[in-house]
Amino acid sequence: MVSATLVLVMAMAASGQGFDEGQGIVVRPRDTGAALVNPGMGWVFHYYDNFPPNYGSRLEPSDTLDDFPGLAVIYLRIPWSYIEPEEGKFNWSVLDTPAQRWVAKGKKIALRISCCESWMRYATPEWVQKAGARGHNFRPGQGVSEDGPFWEPDYDDPVFLEKLDNFLAALAARYDGNPEVAFVDVGSFGVWGEGHTWASTQLPYTAETIRRHIDLHLKHFRRTLLAANDDLAMQGRGEEVLDYARERGLTLRDDSILVQGGENAYFSAGLAQKFWRDRPVILESEHYGGSRDRGNWGDGAKYLQALEEYHASYVSIHWWPREFLEEQQTLIERMNQRLGYRLQLLEAWWTTPVFKDGRLKVGWVWRNAGVAPCYLGGYPALTLKDDRGGIVSVFVDASLNVRDLPVGPPAEAEPRSHEAEFVPPFQLRAGEYDVFVSVGTQTGTPVIALPLPEEDGQRRYRLGRIRIAGDYAVHIGELERRGGRYFLPVTWEIHRPLPANSTPFCHFERSGRIEFYGQLKEGVQVERLWEPGRVDAGIVFEVPAEARGRGFDVLLGLWIPERVGREDERL
Q1: What is the mean pLDDT of the chain?
Q2: Residue 280: other Cβ atoms inside 10 A
Q3: pTM for the whole thing?
Q4: Fewer CB atoms inside 10 Å of the end CB: C or N, the chain?
Q5: What is the side-by-side order of every strand in the sheet holding 150-153?
Q6: Where does 24-34+342-469 sit in CATH, by number?
Q7: DSSP string covering 300-345, please?
Q8: Which of 60-64, 131-135, 167-171, 509-513 is least confident?
Q9: CA distance 80 to 48
Q10: Would the pLDDT of 17 be above 50?
Q11: Where along the chain do its domains lie?
């Protein structure tokens, strides 16, 4: 007996036709409604806030709020004195400890380092004052008070600015350009780092002061997104300071939505129009419990309305997170459908079968159902996988950048259609494969989560199947012994017209060397193998004495003798 491993050698041919639903697959997926965690957008949980125990102190170290849908960023707002209690000596663990809990889950952090608080005397480290920095004692709501319990630096003082400059340099050395950081607030001016002095000294500062603080941050943070608070324009400074910030690449954040209710729930949606088209806008709500208890929150509809009008990419969890989730779950679900960008695949089609030396034609219709552009951009890709989940081909539509998808009111954003053609790679074998869609880099790495079912765990989503067809297929029957010879039943399924003189071959190889041959059985007209259809044409062979009891690879296929020595000699 001959132990044989069959290796079928087949080439592919082009279909040569445009797409026809009768010869291809069309799918129209539905949005699953899932909350998405994607780069450049999401819910921001205030782990440290106006008071460090708010609002992460009730969480166990192992609790990373995995049940909060759409949570993407952990916000660490902390006084400068917590980080640099002594000049040049830093307690980075204050930031890195909570950060690493969420970084391990693929989430990011955001930072605000404040220089004045209304609950502790020295948000700016005391050693800065002792070094000669001027400042003022104050009482919240009363302004400057000689015996006030809290201290606010003079934001123009040269000693203060020198020490702040040094601190920002150290901060940026760790966090500028760090992929774990979503954004950093310009938080060095005003009480709570919020850009005003209404709740501290109430002293006015000019736009020049604000520009100086923006420039200090820009000096050190050159790669990470910086955020300017809308309140920087308060106290007579005007929008020019925010124009200055925008022109230098900063984005806008608004603290705090729903401090008041009704028509006064927010004031800066107009400002946001200068920012949202090319950078993510950040919204922070009022402390939820306070707004709720004063009757300003209502059903939270104004938060959703602000999301729409600001075209926000980030919104805050500004309270004890599970209490907020429990009481506002419906609102959270509604906001997740619009927050940031939401890439919907409305339709996809592809040709099947596809021949290897032909073209895979693909078309799709995409829509951004969110309120903001996908600023980082991305490219749709089709990935073909075998039945074991192995990737056999990746096709990236690099001419379609999802960053260019327009946004609009709910369900009204304009869809964009696009078609592409791809050449199957030379190593793609004939067979049936699963088709997955993804959006990511130009090299096919998935980056963006989509609201689609059947995810593979790597942000690829199954759409259906595709058949890669050879020039022909070969169906092998059971080997028969006929006297001193063997007969291998073979049915040839010809998929398209083949060149004249296409000839069957059957090689028995060992270690890459041909040991003996098989022949087409007598009486078969070879010409029948040149036209589409099924042909029963088996192979007969004899096993040489020296080959008996050994195993061989059997190579069976069609070739064109006139092409011998060329890459295309075998079909």
Answers
A1: 93
A2: 27
A3: 0.88
A4: N
A5: 143-144, 135-139, 150-153
A6: 2.60.40.770
A7: SHHHHHHHHHHTEEEEEE-S-HHHHHHHSHHHHHHHHTTSS--EEE
A8: 509-513
A9: 13
A10: no
A11: 24-34+342-469, 45-337, 472-559
